[in-house]
Design a protein that fits this description.
Structural class: alpha/beta
Number of helices: 11
Largest sheet: 9 strands, mixed
Bound molecules: zinc ion
Order of helices and strands: EEEEEEHEHEEHEHEHHEHEHHEHHEEEEE
Distance between the termini: 24 Å
Helix content: 25-40%
Shape: globular
CATH architecture of one domain: Alpha-Beta Barrel
Number of strands: 19
CATH topology of one domain: TIM Barrel
Length: 449
């Protein structure tokens, strides 16, 4: 017998894999039961009408730094997942740093899961970390359900998470290959670069961390992906110079993938004022021409998807008063704004909402192996939905920011795309600035469906 829907969400603009149409999404429990014409809604079925707003699958952000436990004053699960829900994100994956302890042991993973209790407004998965002395923990962490492993090829910014060297990767990759989960690599190799003369100058910061760091690290990863049958994923690509080499490797059949982030797709270094350390991130933001080449890479399918790399810290650590790029913490807070940032840029370049859904929901859901549950409006999928107005413009103001430390280079930006409601597995969790009910986000493990 076909179950009775609990309710229907209707809109003139529902985006399914088959295209956009006026439709009713029938919800039963946590799942999408069916998508039907509005005229076919059973007479006793309650309706939530979203009018002319776009209703599309909730976004999946596979690169977020929440920092709890241990550095909860930087960011915590409650504030990060609220900001995510307000931004139309329904699933995120948390990085193994900058929490204390870092997620490099099973015990640390359990501490992290414990810390999420009653705090998750959206679903949340985890990565484990690879550091020089934890090879014995890799297999147990994989069995405990992490969705992948993160490693650095240069200093991570915190001493508890030391970077690894090529030989560590060579020892670890066979284990990951056996487990079928990816290694996500911060791809910068510290080879050369001019030590900054003027720590307030953004140009000097770029010179101290040239594109060759990233290009060379990626060439090493390309080589390793050819030697080991393992999924290698390059996080937060900033240099467009190396895109054709990555694409060629994938075309040759090697499982290498790459993401980029809103700050590389929205800002251009020509416009960054000296001393404005809100823009510090690693690798650096490059010139407008590089940004356009990243967009071309997305268009051609050379870049697989987009993540926020939401990486907050306290205002003090951003060192705004001194404006010192050398001393400031590197990381940009953006989780609430990835949808309007990317949509504004898409709109300017003629990209469709379908393309945005692919880059920000469907492809990242596939990356974490959850594409049977997340990332599309289809029968049987989780009823993770966002309703938003792509034509409404607004300015980002501090008061409307939900993540913990409000410092962000997006403050004052005028963007298209206002989220009016977010549904997590059939439950409305956010509507017009308010959070509804209790936090009911679930932990997503590699082995729990
Ligand atoms: Zn990161």
């Amino acid at each position: 017998m076909i179950p009775t829907p609990d309710f229907a969400i209707t809109s003139q603009r529902v985006i399914t894999p088959q295209g956009e149409r006026a439709a009713a999404i029938l919800i039963h429990g946590e799942k999408i039961l069916d998508i039907i014409s509005i005229s076919e809604i059973p007479s006793n079925c309650p309706v939530e009408d979203m009018g002319n707003h776009v209703v599309m699958p909730g976004l999946v952000d596979t690169h977020v730094h929440i920092n709890e436990p241990g550095r909860t004053d930087w960011e915590g699960f409650e504030t990060a997942t609220k900001a995510a829900a307000a931004g139309g994100i329904t699933t995120l994956v948390d990085m193994p740093l900058n929490c204390i302890p870092v997620t490099t042991t099973v015990d640390a993973l359990h501490q992290k899961i414990e810390a999420t209790k009653d705090q998750l407004w959206i679903d949340c998965g985890f990565y484990g970390g690879i550091i020089p002395d934890n090879i014995q923990n890799i297999e147990p962490l994989a069995d405990a359900g992490v969705l992948g492993f993160k490693a650095f090829l240069s200093h991570s910014g915190i001493d508890e998470f030391p970077n690894i060297l090529e030989h560590h990767l060579r020892e670890t990759l066979p284990i990951l290959s056996k487990k079928g989960i990816p290694v996500l690599v911060h791809a910068e190799l510290e080879n050369g670069g001019i030590k900054s003369e003027n720590n307030k100058s953004y140009k000097s910061f770029q010179n101290s961390r040239p594109k060759s760091w990233e290009n060379n690290a990626i060439r090493l990863l390309i080589q390793l992906s050819k030697e080991f049958d393992v999924r290698i994923h390059i996080v937060h690509l900033s240099s467009a110079d190396i895109l054709s080499e990555i694409a060629q490797t994938r075309n040759d059949g090697y499982p290498i993938s790459v993401e980029t982030c809103p700050h590389y797709l929205h800002f251009a270094s020509e416009n960054i004022s000296d001393g404005d350390t809100r823009f510090k991130c690693a690798p650096p933001i490059w010139e407008a021409k590089n940004r356009e080449n990243l967009w071309r890479g997305l268009e051609k399918g050379m870049i697989n998807f987009i993540t926020s790399d939401h990486s907050p810290c306290t205002a003090e650590l951003k060192n705004m008063e001194a404006g010192d790029f050398e001393k400031a913490w590197g990381g940009i807070s953006s989780i609430q704004f990835t949808l309007p940032v990317i949509w504004t840029e898409c709109k300017a370049r003629g990209f469709s909402i379908d393309q945005l859904i692919h880059w920000m929901s469907t492809a990242p859901a596939k990356f974490i192996g959850k594409d049977q549950h997340k990332g599309q409006i289809s029968p049987g999928f989780d009823a993770d939905l966002v309703s938003w107005n792509p034509d409404q413009k607004y300015m980002i103001q501090k008061e409307a920011i939900h993540h913990k430390n409000k410092l962000t280079p997006y403050e004052g930006e005028s963007l298209y795309g206002v989220v009016n409601a977010t549904f997590l597995r059939g439950q409305k969790v956010y509507e017009n600035g308010e959070f509804l009910g209790n936090p009911t986000g679930k932990i997503i493990l590699n082995n729990n469906g």
